Amino acid sequence: QVQLVESGGGLVQAGGSLRLSCAASSKNYAFSTLAWYRQAPGKERELVAAIIGTGTVRYADAVKDRFTISRDMAKATLYLQMDSLKTEDTAVYYCKFGAGGAVQFWGQGTQVTVSS
Fold first, then answer.
1. Over the Cα atoms of the chain, what is R_g?
2. Closest Cα partner for 91 from 46, 36, 47, 39?
3. Could you read off the pLDDT of 50-85 as tens digits, one per residue?
4. In the chain, N or C: fewer CB atoms in 10 Å?
5. Phi and psi angles of residue 89, each rounded to the nearest 5 degrees, phi first
């Protein structure tokens, strides 16, 4: 079993920046997909950004050119740099590490609140 511990959320004004981190408790899995999701109140959870396989990166249209996903596999840590934040970015952000098939692990979520 792998635990993912998220950090870096908080309250920020519109236009500001935050950096989320997600650290895995184990490096014993060959994680094939690392991703960030978010869920705003009353909305479904949505994909924000993902690193797939050896390094293909995908972003949701809403965050392109503002968010940057990165990883440090030596530390088994995933990052999300969020710049030019907007009020509509307010949500609980979750990380997910996938090891193929149905094997996947989720973080506990970290609240990001962007004020106007």
1. 14
2. 39
3. 999 888 999 999 999 999 999 998 899 999 999 999
4. N
5. -80, -5
